[in-house]
Write a structure and sequence with these properties.
The complex is a heterodimer. By secondary structure, chain A is α/β, with parallel strands linked by helices. Chain A has helices spanning 6-14, 28-40, 71-74, 92-98, 102-111, 117-123, 135-140, 160-165; strands at residues 18-22, 56-60, 76-80, 87-91, 125-127, 143-144. Chain A has 8 helices and 6 strands. The termini of chain A are far apart. The longest helix of chain B is centred in the middle third of the chain and has 40 residues, at 43-82. The chains are: A alpha/beta, B mainly alpha. Chain A: It is found in: Mitochondrion.
Chain lengths: 179, 152
């Protein structure tokens, strides 16, 4: 860092980076907190609300997002069309089928500060349901962020030796009838 | 009716009103130039706007101190997260090491002196580990290096 000129150092500090987050098997709330922190610029020591220090965030694989618990059936997204009798309530599963990007977009929108910068920050958020990215966005990416949740392995992904090495709690007797 | 003739209606008021008006507009021109609409030109509106501006200025002398402190805390938190640590851990452990740097100085260090800030973060981490060892251990291990506070 001491070898860079002052102007180059300043350019590097105030440059706008592009972050990539893979949302496969991740809870959308944790993805949204990471996005909102970086969109506001709160991950930088030079943060100020007026200095427009937010970065771009690209979220991929939002179609494969994973809510914990029973939220797919229990979480309700409400909206009103403005006309009488226009109160609509949709479960998370239905909304995800209709638009795979909406859950992450609404989560990030709710986590940003409620001021006029929110819309510009949402413009800097790019959500893609699958792995495909346009070439110009792929060329801009600078850093990939680690996933917040460790994906647990499926039973089919364990080798037979690991399954055998796992301690058995209880061995059923010979004439035990399993359901 | 007291004023029965035309000549009695004439009142001799102050001669300098115009100049007083101009004095206000010119005296606070630096303040008024940032106002919106007719408040920056017309006397009646400008008087009220200037008074309101002064009231806001007095009230916000206290708010400025609060806002600056939250800004310093936000900046320090951002810098500590870059080093895989959190703000409360850093401040608590720096307090325990009796490092009496205030938030203003630490946020300036975090911006302009990144390596000094890294050393502060490492100090806090080491003190945290010592605290864990003292709490979880059985007391047979000697108390740590950083826990022996010299200054009171």
């Amino acid at each position: 860092m001491s070898s860079f000129s002052r102007s180059a150092q300043q350019w590097a500090t105030f440059a706008r980076s592009w972050f990539l987050i893979d949302a496969r098997m991740q809870p959308p709330g944790k993805i949204a907190t990471m996005c909102s922190v970086r969109l506001q610029g709160k991950h930088k020591p030079i943060y100020h609300a007026l200095s427009d220090c937010g970065d771009h965030v690209v979220v991929i694989n939002t179609k494969h997002i994973a809510f914990s618990g029973n939220k797919w059936e229990q979480k309700v997204y409400s909206s009103h069309t403005g006309f009488p009798g226009g109160f609509k309530q949709v479960t998370a599963a239905q909304l995800h089928l209709k638009d795979p990007k909406a859950i992450v977009r609404l989560a990030v929108y709710g986590m940003l500060p409620r001021n006029l910068h929110r819309r510009t920050m949402m413009q800097r958020l790019h959500i893609f349901p699958e792995d495909e990215l346009p070439d110009d966005i792929r060329a801009n990416l600078t850093e990939e962020l680690p996933q917040p949740r460790e994906i647990p392995r499926k039973l089919s992904e364990y080798t037979q030796e690991e399954i055998d090495a796992f301690p058995r709690l209880w061995i059923p007797p010979e004439d035990y009838k399993m359901k | 009716m007291v004023f029965l003739t035309l000549s009695c209606w004439i009142r001799n008021r102050g001669p300098d009103r115009f100049w007083k008006v101009q004095e206000l507009l010119k005296h606070h021109a630096d303040l008024l130039s940032h106002f919106r609409g007719r408040k920056n030109r017309c006397y009646k509106l400008a008087v009220l706007a200037v008074r309101r501006a002064f009231v806001y200025a007095t009230k916000s002398r206290k708010l400025k101190k609060r806002n600056m402190r939250t800004l310093w805390i936000t900046r320090i938190a951002a810098a500590t997260r870059e080093h895989n640590m959190k703000y409360p851990i850093l401040m608590h452990n720096l307090n325990k090491c009796s490092v009496q740097l205030n938030r203003r100085v630490i946020s300036d260090i975090a911006i302009t002196e990144p390596r000094t800030f890294l050393s502060l973060a490492k100090l806090a981490r080491a003190r945290q580990q010592e605290g864990f060892r003292a709490a979880l251990g059985d007391g047979k291990e000697p108390s740590g290096v950083l826990s022996r506070v010299m200054l009171q």
